[in-house]
Amino acid sequence: MIFVLPGCALLPEDQFIAVNLVGYEADSPKQSFVINTESTDFKIVRLHNSEVVLSGRVEELAEADSISGDRLAIIDFSGLNTPGEYVIKTSGEPDLISHPFKIEENVYHDALIAMVKSYYYHRCGTAVGDKTEWSYNVCHLDDAPFFRDPETSKRVTGGWHDAGDYNKFSGNTALSAGLLLYAYDLDPAAFTDHQLDIPESGNGIPDILDEVSWALKWLLKMQRDDGAVYHKVSQEKWIGEFLPDQDPSIRYIFDVSSAATASFAAATALGARHLEEFNPSFSLELYSAAQKAWDFLENNPGNEPEGGFKNPPGVTGGEYGDPSDLDERLWASAELFNLTDSEVYLDFFIQNYNRLSLSNIPPISWRDAESLALRAFLSSNIPDRYSNEREVIKTHIINHADSILEVQKANNYKNLLQKDQYYWGSNSVGLAYAFDLIHAFEISGELEYRLAALDQLHFILGRNPLNLSMVTGVGSVSVKNPYHQLSEMGGFSAPVPGMLVGGPNNHLLLNDRNISTRPAKNYEDTFKNYLVNEPAINFTAILVFVTTAFSTSTKKSDIATTSK
Question: Are residues 328 and 322 in contact, defined by beta-carbon separation less than 8 angstroms?
Fold first, then answer.
């Protein structure tokens, strides 16, 4: 819906005012961008009574960039701290008006809760949502025969549906659970019991930990007796779209992989540490499983299978193969050390961390856990004799953060992506760099890193070339038609809220059709285009972490500065 004040025309497609469509913290920097039009003056208008609360001059347009093709002029309204809902109006050819946004304390709180609760609507093997619109009956109770021996099966019900479809991947579930636990670490007080209104609400455990526990309980089912972890549960081939409880596909258990086993070890170690206070018996179960997974890894030092997991012939769909499991092993060793204080795990990290490409740290993904491993190491109680290793790693993280800043400074939208990084899941790539900047801020105190990470959140929530929040149900204008079978097939009035879609992708094109010649605009809000519009649990998990960093009251003083 476009809000129009008297005297303002509807927004042309390529001329608009880009804002964070959720809003801005009251004491934070606040900027919007005027896109592709010469404007001279702006006014901030209170939505409910059309009162002009601030006015000023629009900066001159920058040169068009090659990623979006847009020319941007900046409106800085950092001096406006009064809570309320607003629009921005500009004078020019044509006059423009923005979509509504808010200014308030803890403005991202409701968005954060929606993001975390979206995992509830990805639960498998249970009835979901009896109190909400997005409900479905018990699904996938027959998981699953082994693909290589269909006459043999193992009960692996539960867990989270991975994305828009209903497959389940051990490595990606472990990564997503780990990121949610790291978000909890940022400010445990921000996450409470009764917060999500899920079946476990009221049990005295923060709801986010209950939701993560749902995933961890499934991961335990995926562990073999020798500690190895089966790579995935998935259908052989895609057979069409269905509601979860009407999906007729057979879902198979596929072979173990050391990458999945290492991610499992990290996530279960994290879970054991976080749940010790709330659920001691489950914490001990996770503790034992993490150690058993590590024992397998020690007994099998090579990447299993060689070269990483590959789909068997004839199997299509998500493969999630990883050519190197070293980063996952390092993540597991750091978290096992955090859990146990056993230097067996620390010794592995110290002896192997320099085998990583520390001068070129990749963005976090199901395949790349370097940033998680380094952060876990630096957050641990490291003996003084390893102070040199600590400083070396810190230096690499700061250098990496500085290189991210250089990319941002060359991007008019203050996005963190380079031109060639608009591939599948590009939104999560930018947020992964925001994760790295937040870590750099944590170890250095340099506010520039934190502000750049905040700019990335602004980008995801609407201050982007698409004039759209990339999170379903979050912001005044947001994604409406994600490739999410439950949301599409259920006949609901809106998709499940809180899910981050993959975003612009000019590396893989649906039916070889290029939506735009500009990488940052190669996106459409269309159900069938899963290459740009599919959510995934790992995408949303990194968003939860970044949003948490800017949604808690304890952090507000850190960003109370004027953006330059």
Answer: yes
> What kind and span of H or E run contains 540?
helix 537-549
Is it the case that residue 558 has pLDDT exceeding 70?
no
Only one residue has tokens 């409900």, namely: 135
Tell me how many degrees the CA angle 97-98-100 measures, rounded to the nearest 5.
125
Categorise residue 129: left if φ over 0, alpha if ψ from -120 to 50, beta otherwise. left
Please report, to the nearest 10 degrees, the dihedral formed by the alpha carbons of residues 398, 399, 405, 409 taken in order: 150
CA distance 265 to 293: 6
Inter-axis angle of helices 387-409 and 370-378, nearest 10? 130
- Considering only residues 519 and 129, tell me which one the structure prediction assigns the higher pLDDT: 519
**What radius of gyration do the chain's Cα atoms show?**
23
pLDDT beyond 50 at 7: no
Name the one residue in this structure whose structure tokens are 């937040």: 438
pLDDT tens per residue across span 105-114? 999 999 999 9
> Omega into 144 within 30° of 0, i.e. cis?
yes
Q: What is the percentage of the chain residues whose pLDDT exceeds 90? A: 92
Class of domain 109-559: mainly alpha
pLDDT average, residue stretch 508-536? 96
**Given this model, what pLDDT does residue 560 score?**
38
Q: Where are the alpha helices (DSSP H) in 157-254?
A: 170-186, 207-221
Q: What is the 3-state secondary structure (H, E, C) of 350-400?
A: HHHHHHCCCCCCCCCCCCCCHHHHHHHHHCCCCCHHHHHHHHHHHHHHHHH
Which DSSP state fits 6? T
Is the omega angle on the peptide bond into residue 305 within 30 degrees of 0, that is, cis? yes
| Cβ pair 5, 85 in contact under 8 A | no
Q: CB burial class (10 A; 0-12, 13-18, 19+) of residue 74?
A: middle
Residues in the chain: 564
Between strands 101-104 and 23-25, the pairing is parallel
pLDDT averaged over every residue in the chain: 94
Within 10 A of 380 (CB to CB), how many other CB atoms are there?
A: 19
pTM of the full predicted structure? 0.95
β pairing state of 84-92 and 96-97: antiparallel
Residue 214 — φ and ψ, nearest 5°? -60, -40
* Domain residue ranges in the chain: 109-559
SS3 of residue 191 by DSSP: coil
End-to-end Cα, the chain, rounded Å: 32
Preceding amide of 6 cis, omega within 30? no
Tell me the pLDDT band of 129, cut-offs 50, 70 and 90: confident
Could you tell me the pLDDT band of residue 535, with boundaries at 50, 70 and 90?
A: very high
Helix, strand or coil for residue 92? strand
Question: Number of C-alpha atoms within 13 angstroms, CB side, residue 31?
Answer: 24
